[in-house]
Every structure is written in C-alpha cells, then in structure tokens.
Write a structure and sequence with these properties.
Blueprint (H helix, E strand, L loop, with lengths): L10 H6 L6 E4 L1 H6 L1 H16 L4 E2 L10 H5 L3 H18 L3 E4 L2 H10 L8 E4 H10 L15 E3 L13 H9 L35 H11 L4 E4 L2 H13 L7 E4 H7 L4
Amino acid sequence: MTDNKYNVPLQRDLFAQGKNPEYLLWIGCAGAFDKRYQKVAKAFTKILLHCNVDFACLGQEETCTGDPARRAGNEMLFQMQALQVINTFSSYNIKKIITICPHCYNTFKNEYPDLGGNYEVIHHSAFLLDLFNKGLLKVDKEIFANERVTFHDPCYLGRANNEYDAPRMTLEKAGITLSEMKNNRSSSLCCGAGGAQMFKEAEPGTKEVFEARTDEAFETGASIIATACPFCMTMLTDGIKKKQAEETVKNLDIAEIIAAGLQL
C-alpha cells in the first residue's frame, strides 16, 4: 500500500512537512499481507484519493492491533502490541482512524480506551456512506444493476457494535437492491473465523460454519456476496470454492463494489 502507484500519503512524510492529516487509514494485517485483501485496501484508497480525503497511512510503522493475541488468550502480548500502537499514534497526534477491518475497528473503539488510547474510529462502510451523503462520491449505478447481491454481516461490526445500516445503505447508494439471507443483521451467522478461530483447527462436527453461511448466501440466488471484513472474505471465498462456483458467484468487499463504479 505504499508503492505510490496510488500516491498513498505516509504519515511520517506529512509530519516532516509540518502537516497533520485529518484521518489515519489503518490498513491492518490482512490489507498489508493478504493478497486478496490488498485489493480491498487499494480499492478503498482509490476512493479516498478520488474524493480528496485528507488522510495518510503509517506504512512500515504500522503493526498489529493485538486483537488476535487477546482473542487467543495472550493478554500480555495484546497489551504490548496495543501500547506500541498507542505510542505511535501519540507521536503523530492521531485523533481519527478509518479501518477496513471490523476487528481492528472494535479493538480501537472499545478496547484501546482502557489503555489510554481514545480515538474517533470509523469503519470504512460508514465512511463511504458519509462520502455519499456529502455528495463527494458518485458512482455509475448501472454496473451492478443486473446483479443479485446479498450482504453478510461481520460479527465485529454488527453484533459487537450494532452497525447494520451503513454497509447496506452504502450498497443502496450504488444502485443495489439487496437480497437478504435468511439469517441477517443481529441473527446473522458467523463466518467461522472470528475470535481467533481463523488460526485453529476445526472442531468435531458435521458441517463447518462457513459452509452453512455460504449455503444461506446461495439460497438468495446471489451472484455477488458482499462483505466488509477480511476474515469473512476469506471464509466465504472458501465456501464458494468448496461449491466449485467461482465462475458464477463472486465475493466482493463493499469498497471494491463502490470503486468499480467510480465516476472519474
């Protein structure tokens, strides 16, 4: 994300120039290291640059929030990571953070304050909606007009933080009428990766959680499963592959959908 094909502003460079951007865009571990989610990070960055948002990234100064460590039970490692991040934020006087991951969002918003890190934290779905509402973002609504789209609620955005409307309203602004899954909003099924489940072997059972959720998505007849979380994207993409449906069903983040319709 610092390859400057996108001319991504870096916090340290702006700071050296005496500038203090309004927002820090937190890329997160998935956006930095996972090749699939790097596409999401680039799509969202493209939108921010298109809308002339005053933001910067930390680049190589960014590290993990510590969320997976805490979920896995390593509280000491979590606090070490968190205090390191808080120290970096303090050095740059960072007040507002945009995340493209609900896990990072939840950690910054609800857990860092206990360690002295108090910030305005915005998930990218809410930020996209705000750009639409301010008239800064316009898209070609015809691109996905013939697609049936369903949205999967990330646990750490929905049930953990009661944010169900922003991603749906953002997709509606792009001209999309959603086909809801049987279990949605507060009754939505987990993708199966949260709470550090991503990093452990499956437990005994007859069906993986991600398979059950993918089945629900397929029942809507959707050609696009929209997500807003790297964990969810990984699991639902696995579900699509397991059904050998890669040619007919896509898993796209809401940022990728919006970026595809940008009116340049």
